[in-house]
TrEMBL record:
This is Phenylalanine--tRNA ligase alpha subunit. Its EC number is 6.1.1.20. SUPFAM superfamilies: Class II aaRS and biotin synthetases (SSF55681), tRNA-binding arm (SSF46589). Mg(2+) binds at E254. GO terms for cellular component: cytoplasm. It is found in: Cytoplasm. It is an enzyme of class 6 (ligase). Its cofactor is Mg(2+). GO terms for biological process: phenylalanyl-tRNA aminoacylation. The keyword RNA-binding does not apply. It catalyses: tRNA(Phe) + L-phenylalanine + ATP = L-phenylalanyl-tRNA(Phe) + AMP + diphosphate + H(+). It comes from Anaerocolumna sedimenticola.
Length: 339
C-alpha cells in the first residue's frame, strides 16, 4: 500500500511539473484528488487494510493529499502571475493623458434668480410661503375681486379642470390663504409655478414662475410700497438703480401701478436693451383692495397693506441679458453651463 501510494504521488508531481495550462492543472487535480481520484480510491480501500495499519496508511494518504494540493496551488499561482505579466505588457496605459472630466450639475438660472430675490426679501423680514398649484376658482379669482364675468376667467385664458377647479394663473391665492389665517401682521413672499393659456414664443409660455409679495399691517401706505420696491431694485440691479411708478389697473389692488427700473445697462441714457427709453418694466403692484381684505376677514378700517408680483423668468432674462425665454426650458447644456 505504501509503495502504491508513493507511485501515485510521484506520478502526480511529474504531471503537475509538466503542465503548461491552467485547464490541464485542473484535470490533474480531479484525476488525483477528485471524488473518483486515485487518492480517494485508496481511502475507499482502507477496509481491506489490517486494523492495526489503518492509522498509519490514513496518515500517509492525508500527507500525500496535502503535498499534492500544495504543489497544485504553487503551479496555479505561477500561471496567474504569468498571465498578469502578459496582460500588463499588452495593456499599456499612458498616464500623461488628461483624465475624463466629470459633468457636474449646478443651479438653473431661474433658481439662481429666485434665491437672490428670496435673500433680499428675507433680509427685509419676509417669510417665504407656498401653496397648491391646482386651485379653487374662489381663491384664484373671486377672493381677489375678480367677478364671474371677468375676461380672465374665460377658458381661452385659463386651464380649467372643472367648473370650480383650475391650474392657478398667479400665486395670489397663496396670499388669500395666508390672510384667512388671521395671523397679523403679514409679510410674505409667495414664489411658485403658474399656468396660463399662452402661445409659446420668446416672451410667453403656458407654464412659468411668479413671485408675489404681500404686507398687511396697521398704517401701511403707498410710501412703504415705494420704499420697499426701490430697495429691492437697488439690491437686485445695482445701487444706482431708480424706480418709476406708472398708474395701472388691477382688480385686487387700489391704487395700482406698473413699476419700471432705470436701465442698468446704459444707466438710463437709452440703449438697445431698454429700446431707447432708459427704463425697463419689471412688475405690477398696488395697495390691497379693501374688498379683498374684507373677504379674507380683515378689517380695512384698521389694517391696510400692499402687494406686488413679478415673473421669475423676467428677472432672469433681465439680469442675465437673455433674449429668448425658451432657452430657459430647452435644457441645452451649452446654454446652461454659462451660469
Amino acid at each position: 500500500m505504501k509503495e502504491k501510494l508513493k507511485a501515485i504521488v510521484d506520478e502526480a508531481l511529474v504531471k503537475i511539473q509538466a503542465s503548461e495550462e491552467l485547464d490541464k492543472l485542473n484535470d490533474i487535480r480531479v484525476a488525483f484528488l477528485g471524488k473518483k481520484g486515485e487518492l480517494t480510491e485508496i481511502l475507499k480501500s482502507m477496509k481491506d487494510v489490517a486494523p492495526a495499519d489503518r492509522p498509519v496508511i490514513g496518515q500517509l494518504v492525508n500527507e500525500a493529499r496535502a503535498a499534492l494540493e500544495e504543489k497544485l496551488d504553487e503551479k496555479k499561482n505561477y500561471f496567474a502571475k504569468k498571465l498578469r505579466e502578459e496582460q500588463i505588457q499588452k495593456e499599456t496605459i499612458d498616464v500623461t493623458l488628461p483624465a475624463k472630466k466629470p459633468m457636474v450639475g449646478h443651479r438653473h438660472p431661474n433658481s439662481i434668480a429666485l434665491d437672490e430675490v428670496e435673500r433680499i426679501f428675507v433680509g427685509m423680514g419676509y417669510e417665504v410661503v407656498e401653496g397648491p398649484e391646482v386651485e379653487y376658482d374662489y381663491y384664484n379669482f373671486e377672493a381677489l375681486n375678480i367677478p364671474a364675468n371677468h375676461p380672465a376667467k374665460d377658458e381661452q385664458d385659463t386651464f380649467y379642470i372643472t367648473g370650480d377647479i383650475l391650474l392657478r394663473t398667479q400665486t395670489s391665492p397663496v396670499q388669500v390663504r395666508e390672510m384667512e389665517k388671521g395671523k397679523l401682521p403679514i409679510r410674505i413672499l409667495a414664489p411658485g409655478k403658474v399656468y396660463r393659456s399662452d402661445e409659446v414664443d420668446a416672451t410667453h409660455s403656458p407654464n412659468f414662475h411668479q413671485i408675489e409679495g404681500l404686507v398687511i399691517d396697521k398704517n401701511i401706505t403707498f410710501a412703504d410700497l415705494k420704499g420697499t420696491l426701490a430697495e429691492f431694485a437697488k439690491q437686485l440691479f445695482g445701487e444706482n438703480t431708480k424706480v418709476k411708478f406708472r398708474p395701472h389697473h388691477f382688480p385686487f389692488t387700489e391704487p395700482s401701478a406698473e413699476v419700471d427700473v432705470s436701465c442698468f445697462k446704459c444707466g438710463g441714457k437709452g440703449c438697445r436693451f431698454c429700446k431707447g427709453s432708459g427704463w425697463i418694466e419689471i412688475l405690477g403692484c398696488g395697495m390691497v383692495h379693501p374688498k379683498v381684505l374684507k373677504m379674507s376677514g380683515i378689517d380695512p378700517e384698521e389694517y391696510s397693506g400692499f402687494a406686488f408680483g413679478v415673473g421669475l423668468e423676467r428677472i432672469a432674462l433681465l439680469k442675465y441679458e437673455i433674449d429668448d425665454m425658451r432657452l430657459l426650458y430647452e435644457n441645452d447644456v451649452r446654454f446652461l453651463k454659462q451660469f
